[in-house]
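Input (Pentapeptide repeat-containing protein):
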Amino acid sequence: MSQLFLDQQYKEIDYTVKGFTAGEYDNCTFTDCLFPALHLSNTSFLECTFTDCNFTNTKFGGTTLNDVVFKGCKMVGADLSVCNDFMWSIHLEDCVMDLANCYKLNLTKTHFKDCSLKETDFTEANLSEAVFSNCDLTNAIFDQTDLQKADFRTAQNYTIDLDRTKVKGAQFSKDEVYGLLTKYGVKIS
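Output:
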């Protein structure tokens, strides 16, 4: 049976040195903690908040993220595609999630606010009703992705192949419409 951690606060812990204890973390906060390249396998985070933490190249195999908030976190190269998709729910604010893997994830209604999502792979992900508020999506991959009713109005630098994604009801800004027409070689003045 895994350990249960309730209402705990963790600050400035380098888990690459201290080691991380797998278990169920419920309503815990992590501030300025380091998780780079760790395997957080078979761990559950329920209603937890991570602030200014480093998850660079972290492996989330079998990890449960339910109602989890990431604020100011570095998640470069994080592989979220192997998370437990049961009860999946995250919110990201002011995070750097470049080169992350979100392949086939159910990210319905996920809110990305002020995030860098450069070269993040959203192939076959469900991003219906997701909101990308002031996010940089340079070279992010949307292939066979469900973007129905997603909000890209304040997002920048996205390129979306309208023939390979579902976009019914999605919202885009006039200034970024070029990212929807790139494959057609259209010139806009």
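The CA atoms of residues 135 and 155 lie 5 Å apart.
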